[in-house]
Amino acid sequence: MVRASLFSRVWMNVVLVVLAILFLAPLIYILFNSFKPAGEIFQVPQSILPKEWTFENYLAATSKGFIDYFKNSVVITVGGVVLTVLLSSLAGYGFAKLPFKGTNFVLLVIVATLTVPLVIFLVPMFLMENEFGLLDTNLGLILPNVAVELPFAILIMRASFMAIPKEIEESATMDGAGVFRRWWTVMLPMARNGMVLVVIMASYAIWGEYTMAKALTMDPSAMPLSVGLTLLKGEVWQYGVLAAVIVLAMLPPIIIFIIFQKHIVSGVAQGAVKG
Amino acid sequence: MASVTFDKASRIYPGQARPAVDKLDLDVADGEFLVLVGPSGCGKSTSLRMLAGLEEVNEGSIRIGDRDVTDVPPKDRDIAMVFQNYALYPHMTVAENMGFALKIAGVNKEERASRVLEAAKLLDLEDYLGRKPKALSGGQRQRVAMGRAIVRSPQVFLMDEPLSNLDAKLRVQTRTQIASLTRRLGVTTVYVTHDQTEALTMGDRIAVLKDGILQQVGTPRDLYAKPENVFVAGFIGSPAMNLFDADIVDGGLKFGTATAKVDRETLAGASGKKVTIGVRPEDVVVAKSGEGLPVDVDIVEELGADGYLYGHTDVDGNRVDIVVRVDGRVHPNAGDKVVITPQPDHIHVFDLESGERLSKKAVETSK
């Protein structure tokens, strides 16, 4: 038995290592290519590490409108995530703790929107944004991104609030806290794990969002990275520059993961202990 | 400090025909420790929550002191509640937990700190003020919950089974602490429990509820010695009172082969030819032989000083179980046959139909 389980554990590890290599290889390839001079990238035979380390690709990338795209992406993502967290934690609290007539119906409608393909909304969205002058603006991308992320975020926040015993809120009520203060000082800190999940989910989704950004921005100065990236290739494909841009574009999601990693793990552990 | 009055207060949950609390009439005197007790679903917690303002009052009214608080929101009732699961705020320290209500009320920082410290001293929590609830033991958390209530110096304490999450030994210890603390502070306290031992040991008076209806209010002694109906008789006391149906005969009652003398006046109120007779386990004389009710001993529980004899007898072919208190050291053994006779002064007689007490009633006592 022991030998068999050891054997299967070894196999499990082999599979995991192979999978990790499959996922990481292209990223590592791109990372090192971004430090190679243009001539070295297509050299045969290929070398993994650059023979000559250079930052010229990064310098070239930042001079080609990258800064604008990056800035747009940051503004859209931060704005979108903040709004998503704020609205979903308010709505989730309402759905979980302040039931009203038709709670379930409204919730059902919200969930139903998850099933509608995004493409259907593109033309109406374009027309509406055109009407309000939101095309080619950061706000014009923040709002539809929030709309797309919100339903699922509300479900997550609702579940987090539902897990909090009702006595805690009753206790706060008797302590004299009004509904807004209860939400802010008592309930929200206790729903932190749900909020972390919403932050991660929304920031990944909005940072990498392409479809709406492609449809709602025409002016390169208003484009986020995901769309701008495709314009960066220039007249001829400069693979070194492209690699540098991709590396820079991947940094924020990785940083977000590193920041919140502790919370994700502790959240899982806490759930396990409390059952 | 203030008295509490339930004036025909009812709570009917939406969609339910039967009220959870049915026209509750109850007076709690200023500074009194009143225990609401009953089996689960009897409406005791609902009554407390109505007083707290967490549950609507559908009929009747509730007063704290002279003030009608029926429609007053919880925060304006000047009450503090201790919940069964303590309901501490997990992201706040002990001091922040205890000072939360004061902070909301706009009490300044210095006064808040001094009042929290004062309560912490009272509860032996000074060393834990900077800790979060998860770093505390169950007993400490319970004390923080108490402290949170004390800090506010409210008119009334409400406690909803505050001891049921503690282990047996700690529960007994905390029981006396709470009882002496509330008396020292002189704050009117309404305490909910399903545990009749807790009720008997802590309460100045006890109110027994069943199915949303108040059965009896009185001192622990009243309830134990003169239960007003069969339900209270069976609920208060452990092990429970022996209750049998007995025939009314000339000069008393007949149960199986045994007879008991009961005066004519008592039995005059009976609605039928049978009554329910109640005898506490300690009010029975056990003999090896002689006149009385023959009992087969099934098992004897030894509890040190006392023992409890669990046996059965046959009445008209039906098995009837009986519990009798015996000496802890010298007692019959399982398989023995004994004869028991109830002490005539301690027989409780109840009407078979209504369950109401026919023997002399307790005089309503209040503090």
From TrEMBL, chain B:
* Any Gene Ontology biological process: carbohydrate transport
The organism's superkingdom is given as Bacteria
Record keywords: ATP-binding included?
Answer: yes
Output the SMART domains linked to this UniProt entry: AAA
Q: Identify the keywords attached in UniProt to this record, alphabetized.
A: ATP-binding, Nucleotide-binding
**Does the keyword field hold ATP-binding?**
yes
GO cellular component, alphabetical, reads: ATP-binding cassette (ABC) transporter complex, substrate-binding subunit-containing
Query: What Pfam families does the database record attribute to this sequence?
Result: ABC_tran, OB_MalK
Q: Please give one Gene Ontology molecular function term for this protein.
A: ABC-type transporter activity
Q: What is this protein called?
A: sn-glycerol-3-phosphate ABC transporter ATP-binding protein UgpC
Q: Species name for this entry? A: Terrimesophilobacter mesophilus
Which gene is the coding source of this polypeptide chain?
ugpC
